[in-house]
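In pairs, describe these two lines:
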Amino acid sequence: MTLSSFGDKFTRKTGILELMEDLAEAAAFPADASGGPLCMLGGGNPARIPEVERVWRSRMGALLADEAGFGRLVGAYDSADGMSAFRSSLASLFKKEYGWEVGPENVCVTNGSQIAVWYLLNLLSGPDAKGRRRRILFPLMPEYVGYADQAVHEDVFVSCKPRIELSGDFHFKYYADLEGAEAVLRSEPIGGILVSRPTNPSGNVLTDAEVARLAALAARYDVPLITDNAYGLPFPGIVFTEAAPYWDPSIVLSMSLSKIGLPSTRTGIIVARKEIIAALSATNAIASLATGTIGQAIAEPLIASGEILDLSRNAVKPYYLAKRDKALSLMRSLFAGMPIRVHQSEGAIFMWLWFDGLPIDSRELYRRLKARSVMVLSGDYFSFGSFADGTSCSAWDHPRRCIRINYSSPDDQVERGLSIIAEEARKAYGEKPR
């Protein structure tokens, strides 16, 4: 079979494919050679929080008990922009809680937020009608591995290298180069700006002031600021620092029901001005015909009542905060004496570990850990595209000394996985540089 250039691009080995293959492979990894269990620290699957699962089970029961409603739920296509009641309830919640001037016409539902960003990136990047090549600007790098291969056109991602600031003897933090971002906007055609908040993989949370400044830049240069809010505010609310939900007409806010406990329903949410919603709906109709309704039907009453905010504040956030604190405490003990730093964990469900001066790269560390049934993600996948000076982000050494772990797995898996990471790191630090 001869594939097109599109086929070649989207069938090659990628970071997001490796992530999903690891998830699928997990079932076939019952133990390592010493009889230890699999430690799944690599994917983005959320934790199963009993209090949250009880709510979703109750909602499923109510849907099953409604015979007529159940028939409509599973027996008919919905529209390409989502259930009317769901979109109306979301708009009402945002208007009531935050004063956002939005209605149902400002909301589009897609089959997961990943596909929504796929649509947006390809609507906004590549050659335009005037023959200009428009690019997507990332004000902060490293960024989510799932973005790296989403653009149909090549060489459309440009980013700014962050300032790295050390904190104490154990932490570090990335700071976005907003001056550099403005310089890129001045110097070349940009179709959109993209940030995640909290940032996947690092757990960095852009401050309210940083978001406001980026939104002002987006408005000034007439490009949308796509804010990927999969872990953020107002729900699921996995944010551990001072931050507020933010939207204005220059922003395309991407949300999801995945991290509040419904990942398999594939329910993505976009909040944007009307012309962007219309473009997304048209694209969704061509690509997906309609949106899945199960997740929307499960969550809609909680959105209408505002209970989804209470669930986020009182169940989801405290659960992950306790998990984070426990993981950090373990790391401090296990990594003592090694030049390993952890990015300030301000949100999301990940830890971003920097093995400063490690003689092997993160891809080799990934292989060694996988051989011991510890799944992580190699940091090099999170650095892609090119920097503003034209150098390749993949040539940046720093991410090749980093790994991402997911601390939402059961405590025994996290503890054992971190112990093995520490063992393999100590071995590697004793090797000669390659």
Q: What stands out?
A: The chain has a mean pLDDT of 92. The longest strand covers residues 190-196.
